[in-house]
Design brief:
The structure holds two protein chains of two kinds.
Chain A lengths: L5 E5 L11 E7 L2 E8 L7 H5 L4 H9 L6 H16 L5 H30 L3 H21 L8 E2 L2 E2 L7 H24 L2 H7 L7 H6 L5 H5 L6 H4 L25 H25 L18 E9 L2 E9 L7 E5 L1 H6 L2 H5 L4 H11 L3 H5 L1
Chain B lengths: L1 H8 L2 H35 L15 H11 L10 H17 L5 E3 L2 E2 L6 H8 L1 H14 L2 H32 L4 H7 L18 H23 L11 H4 L9 H26 L10 H4 L5 H25 L7 H28 L1
Antiparallel strand pairs in B: 1-2
Helix pairs in contact in B: 1-2, 2-11, 2-13, 3-11, 4-6, 4-11, 6-7, 7-9, 7-14, 9-11, 9-14, 11-13
The chains are: A alpha+beta, B mainly alpha.
């Protein structure tokens, strides 16, 4: 019998490519022979824009990179600029940034886990996750007025101090959210069908992960406890005690989709721990005192990295001494993680493409920039 | 029903036709509309939402509004579709799932046709659905539809085997293919239901219970797969295949597939209820008997039947909003490695037990 390969274009409009991503899939029946991601549908010339904007004006643009973790993109950028300027910021600002950043990590992981459930076919966990994310967005809204694109962290400070009720509500959220993680585990993580669908699917060996430059939960799921927060502590992460969850192949092989999923669940718990400690330690102070009137770094280059929810987010900035950067280059975690699609998908079935793509948790805003 | 129509009209063909078509218009079309709303409400409340709230009280008229919208929509046929089969397919699927209702006894007085081979008829007429799906997806000329079609047909054809084996087991036990007779046998109290060994088997009845439970579970799982519901909805897996076999359909033709799915849900639930849970029989006697109002009994029966069938419809919805979806190979594994062997063993054991 004559058989023929079929080329299927998944996307750019497809329910589970998580944005405008096109996957060129070569199929033999249900078997995947090859996957090629095609990107660029969301390209917005971020890096070119940056050459014509002053340093603070770039912050709103960084919001739109990984739009599910805007707070952390701001964080990475302001840390880079402050490093370039040699600016010391007050302790309180650091703690506020850590609290906001970790809330953002939980929010981003909730979207990742919820949409992963939808990819596998379970719709209800998605809405449960969004219900809880809503509470985090409410906290953000009461702090800076925005729910998605915050422009909250400024060079040398933050735009608004925490509102009076914030710390109490944040504590309430932690109390509220801990049982919800258990609920998610009961409903999805330890579901037999879910484990069948994700364990041993898309196994990422450590050497492949390193060769492809994978970072974040994806690298950690392969068993390497690499986290920028521990390796090169920025802000006040060195004063806070937390663990780095890694994949152990609990349900299958180390580095499979279930591990990548579950590392995120465990990271949410660690984020809660970080927030708790930060709330206890936060000092009083003025969050605006170190904000420079004019951001004009000296000549030089800087590369600074932070641990974004998706992985290692790096900013490379070249300054020629003017009030506009000569070059801003972003090292986006999703972009490098997406490259793993090709080695991971080969030999799996069509349904597993979605499983693997979902477990990589990409955001196209960051990939295309 | 047939007798009543025969008395009125005196024409056999006309009364047969009317009595077969009556359940469709009296019960099933309204049910499908209601089930769509029920699904949305059930899912909404399971997910901390409210669901449709705007059209009518708590969104009661939402489905009506949706259907009106779908009727008004443009009927899109893409230029590369094979138009003849593309247009025919939704009707085949619709007819296939609605035809099953002609043989389902809603109560002792309300049954479309007293077919002696009702169960056999339902199993075979639901095969038309496969043809419709095959036709619709192939003529769509769409790669997602193609993949959905391959999955769907493989799935339905595979899962008909455990269904047929369990049905065969039950036919052996009850000695009839007529759904009406089967319901009548399970009369009086709930321990006479087939799930509890059926009526009139004496001591063997107790031995039968575990095997009946196994048969019941197999039948429920395989009917769930036959109607393409989660966790077996790989044919229309929206996260992988957009909408699977009906990706290219819009407007009223889409609504046909949609309503057929809900009608099918009710049909298989009804079969499970009839075969195992006594169909329209009350679990504990009739109010009509104790109050000696004989005309009340058929209405009570209708109530019990609707309650049992709706319970299974609800369970199907419950599963859909709780479980993830299986992968296509896992689905086949479940059918060929677990359900069919268990069903065969079950068949043999029940066969031996019924000898006594």
């Amino acid at each position: 019998m004559k058989t023929e390969e079929m080329i299927l274009n998944m996307g750019p409009q497809h329910p589970s490519t998580h944005g405008v991503l096109r996957l060129e899939v070569k199929l033999e029946g249900e078997l995947v022979l090859d996957v090629k991601p095609h990107i660029g549908y969301l390209h917005r010339c971020f890096e070119k824009h940056c050459e014509n904007l002053s340093y603070p004006q770039i912050i709103p643009y960084t919001d739109r990179l990984d739009y599910l973790a805007s707070m952390y993109n701001n964080f990475g950028y302001v840390v880079a600029v402050e490093k370039l300027m040699g600016l010391e910021v007050p302790e309180r600002v650091h703690y506020i940034r850590v609290i906001m950043g970790e809330f953002q990590r939980i929010a981003s992981h909730l979207v990742a886990l919820g949409t992963y459930g939808v990819d596998i076919g379970a719709f209800t966990p998605f809405l449960y996750c969004f219900r809880d994310r809503e509470k985090i967005l409410d906290l953000f809204e009461m702090t800076c007025g925005a729910r998605l694109l915050y422009n909250y962290m400024w060079v040398g400070g933050v735009s608004h101090d925490l509102p009076p009720d914030f710390l109490r509500l944040a504590k309430d959220f932690i109390v509220y959210f801990r049982p919800k993680i258990k609920e998610l585990n009961d409903l999805l993580s330890y579901n037999k069908i879910f484990i069948e669908r994700t364990a041993n699917i898309g196994i990422l060996p450590v050497d492949t992960a390193i060769n492809y430059g994978a970072t974040g939960p994806i690298l950690r799921a392969s068993g390497i406890p690499f986290d920028v927060r521990k390796e090169e502590p920025y802000a006040v992460y060195d004063k806070i005690d937390f663990d780095i969850p890694t994949g152990h192949g609990e349900k299958g092989t180390t580095g499979d989709s279930w591990d990548r999923y579950f590392v995120r669940v465990q990271e949410m718990e660690q984020s809660l721990r970080i927030i708790e400690q930060a709330i206890d330690q936060i000092p009083d102070g003025d969050v605006h005192e170190a904000i420079p009137r004019r951001v004009k770094p000296p000549k030089g280059t800087v590369f600074s990295r932070v641990e974004n929810p998706k992985g290692e987010l790096g900013y490379f900035i070249i300054s020629d001494g003017k009030d506009k950067p000569a070059r801003v280059k972003v090292r986006p975690p999703s972009f490098l993680n997406l490259a793993l699609m090709e080695p991971l998908c080969k030999g799996h079935l069509v349904a597993d493409i979605i499983t693997i793509l979902g477990s990589l948790d990409i955001v196209l805003g960051e990939i295309d920039r | 029903m047939y007798e009543i129509f025969l008395n009125w009209f005196g024409n056999e063909t006309l009364s047969m036709f009317l009595s077969a078509a009556l359940p469709l218009f009296v019960a099933i079309v309204p049910f499908a509309l209601f089930a769509v709303l029920l699904e949305r409400k059930v899912s909404a409340h399971m997910q901390d939402r409210l669901g449709p709230m705007r059209v009518g009280f708590h969104g009661i008229l939402q489905t009506v509004a949706d259907i009106l919208k779908l009727i008004q929509k443009e009927d899109i046929v893409a230029s590369n579709n094979d138009k003849r089969w593309f247009n025919l397919a939704p009707y085949l699927v619709f007819v296939g799932s609605f035809a099953a209702f002609a043989a389902i006894p809603f109560s002792s007085k309300y049954i479309g046709t007293h077919a002696e081979v009702g169960l056999f008829y339902i199993l075979s007429v639901s095969g038309i659905v496969v043809v419709g799906i095959l036709m619709g997806s192939w003529s769509s000329n769409n790669k997602y539809s193609l993949l959905g079609r391959m999955r769907s047909v493989a799935q339905i054809v595979s899962y008909e085997i455990p269904t047929a084996l369990v049905v065969l087991t039950m036919v052996m036990l009850t000695g009839t293919l007529s759904l009406d007779t089967m319901s009548q046998q399970q009369t009086a109290y709930f321990w006479n239901w087939n799930l509890f060994g059926g009526a009139g088997h004496g001591f063997v009845q107790l031995l039968l219970i575990p095997f009946m439970v196994v048969a019941f579970i197999i039948l429920f799982i395989s009917t769930l797969a036959e109607v393409n519901r989660t966790p077996f909805d790989i044919a229309e897996a929206e996260s992988e295949l957009v909408s699977g076999f009906h990706t290219e359909y819009s407007g009223m033709k889409f609504a046909m597939f949609f309503l057929a799915e809900y009608a099918n849900m009710f049909a298989v639930s009804a079969i499970v209820a009839i075969v195992f849970l006594g169909g329209y029989q009350s679990p504990f006697g009739y109010l009509g008997n104790s109050l000696s109002i004989p005309w009340l009994i058929p209405f009570e029966q209708l109530f019990w039947f609707a309650l049992k069938a709706l319970f299974f419809v609800f369970v199907q919805m419950w599963l859909r909003w709780t479980l993830p979806r299986l992968r296509v190979d896992q689905l086949m594994t479940l059918c060929w490695k677990y359900l069919i062997p268990y069903a065969i063993v079950n068949l043999v054991i029940v066969g031996i037990l019924t000898l006594f």
